[in-house]
Every structure is written in structure tokens, then in C-alpha cells.
Amino acid sequence: MTIETLKPFQMGRETMTGLSRDLYKLAESGNEIIVGLIGAGEMGTDLILQIGRMKGMRVGAVAVRNIENALKAVEIAYGDRDNAVVCENNAAISRAIEMGKIAVCGDAKLVAQNGHISQVIEATGKPSVGAEIGLLTLEAGKHLVMMNVEADVTVGTYLHRRAKELGLVYSVGAGDEPPPLWSWWISPTRWNCQLFLQAKAKTIRSNLMQCRLTMKKKPLRAI
Questions:
Q1: By CB distance 3.0 to 4.6 Å, which of 13, 61, 98, 204 could disulfide with 111?
Q2: What is the mean pLDDT of each run of 10 residues along the chain (223 residues)?
Q3: Do the beta carbons of residue 59 and residue 48 sit within 8 Å?
Q4: Strands of 143-146's sheet, edge to edge?
Q5: Residue 75 CA: distances (Å) to CA of 53, 69, 81, 135, 180
Q6: Please, what are the domains in the chain?
């Protein structure tokens, strides 16, 4: 058998578990989770791309300071910009979502308060913006996913407490640093292995050789 004859594996409904199964059932019932996204940088673009491939969930609106960034993100995800509609008010955002398009606007408040949006992902990386939009999202009755780790370490405890008071969910996106770092810290200790270095890779890339030299002299633990 050659590589050319191999077919990509596709998980069937009967083999789905957990979140994949739940989202598939949601889509089959004719429902979906419509997400509002704040920010269209590296993480925001990845989210538009990944969510666009999922069942039972879609990005309904994106708020950015630079509209062009969001349009480029949609183009990367879908191959063109036809799926994006630039909007200037809440009514236009609602119409775009109802058409199955991604509404793009410059006002995060409009996205957080739109009636079609059930949860908001904050991915700007700016603490002040994350704090403001995060609280606004919760007060609007929407669940909040914080991929803005800078905001989480600043006001995350307060946002979590406020979400519980309102009967909502506040969570940190699993793709950002804290959850993976914690997971990678737990696993080696469970395996009875000694962890020498734990750090954010792109922050040590330029000085990786120095890290290796330091590790030779003595164990280095950066948490």
C-alpha cells in the first residue's frame, strides 16, 4: 500500500466522544453555539479557522480595531472574504449572523451585547480591554472564554466570581499558556520524572543555547 492510496481517517458518529459528540448532536438538532470573538491576531485567526471546521459551533461576529485584520483572518479560514460582512450597528450584525455570515465590526461592545451571541472569546492580549469587555460580556448574560492571559492574571479571580454570581461560566482558553503549563507540570511528576525546564518556548528561542548550557551546570526550573 502506498501513501497515495491511504485515505484520511474520519471519525464517525458512533466513535465520537465528549465534546465532539455533544457538538454533533447539537448540530443534528438544528442548533448551534454562536460565538463572538474579540480580536483577530494570531489566536483570533486560528479560532476563526478551527471553529469554521467544526459542527454545532460557528463564529458569528468579530470585533477588531483594524477591520482589515478580521477580513484577512476570514480569507485565511475560508479562502475568500465572501463570508465576512462589515457592520456598523447591532441590527447589521444580527442580519449578517442570520445570513450565516461573520459580522465584522470595530466595536467590541456590539458583539458582546448582540442577542445572537451566546458566548464571547476574548483574544486581544490587552489586559485593560480584556477586563472591560469581560465584565461587559458577563453583565450581558453571556459566557466568557478568556484567551487573554494578561487579563486573567489581573482580574480573572473577580470575573470568575462575578460569573458564578450571574449563573454563567468563566473559563481560560485551553490553548493559552496556563492550562498547558499546569498539565505539563503534573504529568512528569505523575511519572516520577524530574522536570528541568518549563517555559514559554518563543520567549527563550533566541537564547536556547544559553538555556542548554545552564541546564548542564544545574537543574533549571522556570515556572
A1: 61
A2: 51 68 89 95 91 92 96 94 96 97 96 95 92 94 92 93 97 69 69 66 51 46 45
A3: yes
A4: 84-86, 102-105, 57-63, 33-38, 119-122, 143-146, 170-172
A5: 14, 10, 5, 30, 29
A6: 20-172 (3.40.50.720), 178-217 (no CATH)
